[in-house]
Write a structure and sequence with these properties.
With 144 residues, this protein is of the alpha+beta class. 35% of the residues lie in helices and 22% in strands. Strand 3 and strand 4 form a beta hairpin.
């Protein structure tokens, strides 16, 4: 249950801001990066259809994402900042890691610099099973 909460939070955060230009960069179909890109695009569209999210995350997470999208629509908020093209950083026949670098946006001053999504290949498709956000170190940003 803790993993579901952690993934939910990271995915919600990671998927909350994609309505800006440049979010639709192309990645090769059927790849781990394509799965992450598709999920980000769904999130940026504020899809409230949990079945669509279910192609990329487990059912309980798909429900949470759909419900959160409905809430964001009601509040007239975008879910996340724009992002660079997802990059597969590790891949085997059954698992992969995909890094997404977020574009700086004053609407999201505390947003992480990047998020690394962990994926597992299940029944022939890539499913997102975890997400970990990384912020720049204080030394790198010059903040105390």
């Amino acid at each position: 249950m803790r993993l579901i909460h952690k993934v939910s939070l990271c995915v919600l955060v990671a998927l909350s801001v994609g309505l800006l230009a440049g979010c639709g960069s192309r990645v090769e179909a059927g790849t781990p990066a394509a799965a992450v890109q598709s999920l980000l695009e769904l999130r940026s569209e504020l899809s409230t259809d949990s079945a669509r999210y279910g192609s990329f995350v487990e059912t309980s997470m798909a429900t949470v994402l759909a419900q959160d999208a409905a809430s964001l629509i009601a509040k007239k908020k975008s879910p996340m900042p724009a992002w660079e093209t997802p990059e597969t950083t590790e891949e085997s026949t059954t698992s992969a890691k995909v890094k997404v670098v977020w574009k700086a946006d004053p609407k999201f001053p505390d947003w992480a610099e990047s998020t690394t999504f962990s994926l597992s290949k299940e029944t022939g498709r890539w499913m997102i099973v975890d997400a970990v956000s990384a912020s720049p170190s204080k030394a790198a940003t010059g903040t105390p």
